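Re: weekly structure request thread

Next one in the queue (378 aa):
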Amino acid sequence: MAAFNPDFTIGVLGGGQLGRMLIQAGINLDLNFRVLDPDPQAPCAGLSRFTVGKLTDYQAVMDFGKDCDILTIEIENVNIRALADLEKAGKKVFPQPAVIELIQDKRVQKQFFADNQIPTAPFVLVNSREDVAGHPDFLPAVNKLGKEGYDGRGVQVIKTRADFSKAFDAPGLLEKWIPFQKEIAVIVSRNAGGEVSAYPAVEMVFHPEANLVEYLFSPAQLAESIASEAEAIARKVIARLDMVGLLAVEMFVTHNGEVLVNEVAPRPHNSGHQTIEGNVTSQYEQHLRAILGLPAGSTQLTAPSAMVNLLGEEGYAGNARYEGLGEVLKTAGVHVHLYGKKTTKPFRKMGHVTIVDADLNSLKKKANFVKETLKVKA
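Done, posted below.
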């Protein structure tokens, strides 16, 4: 392999917490970053050469990309046409624009699963609220917006005919509700040479109101056969996409042990935060290795781990303050990551806490202690 030269610029579309942690990982490799984000106070501001601009604006992305050697994303809602034109002009763009475009639309994403024999829940494509109401035989179901749904937004459960009024009056899909025993995720990476590496599956617990990951445990408590199947499916998805970068594959495990893909994200993901302390190589370093054409790092666990999302408390909005931080930091194996967001609001992702502990019962107790003790208020 040729000698590694870090003297080039990685452009990141999106200046949120994922970009922030990507930069933190890149510092160890002496990498240079530029970041584009519409918010001048985004978490990446001050950590890189920062440009204020709209991610979906063609000219803003083109102007930003011209001064970068490699372009990547930390959010999917970006201008695909600009990235495709930059790629044609010789810029390296990972994940590739065609992959981002496919994943941007859940309708296209689902059809990709069906066309490539990737197991997923039964679904039908719909264009309006009226279309949704035309499928009473599909209930109970989940109505998802095709585009621009993220962090729990753009998802509506339709249990009975009375719920049809809640359906989105826009293009989307109606997905059969799957009774599941666990929600899991497997993160995989792939470099330009086709080398694929997978992290052990993690088990996610979602907030009942915000539809956001509240906390997760790594590794997921699964039968070896199910864990192997989940990894094989994730590897198949990234290979069929022919994608370079990091891919989070969210899945359901049904009560009869079937593994079904829910959704995928072509970037570092909430389900991989714990890899910073819980695995030999963090998901952020792994993403950089993949897009730079470097060998994948070890995904081996250093210890069982848990991750607790720090969400803004209900009823509070304004300048953020953190109650219980001192008590949490006294606990062995606890690692606090605050995202640098100056203001809080209900359910806003303000940080996360990773806990590592060789004893699973102790790990769960500590995760619950963190959840109950560390609060983000104003």
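Residues 39 and 285 are 25 Å apart (CA to CA). The mean pLDDT is 95.
Next request, please.
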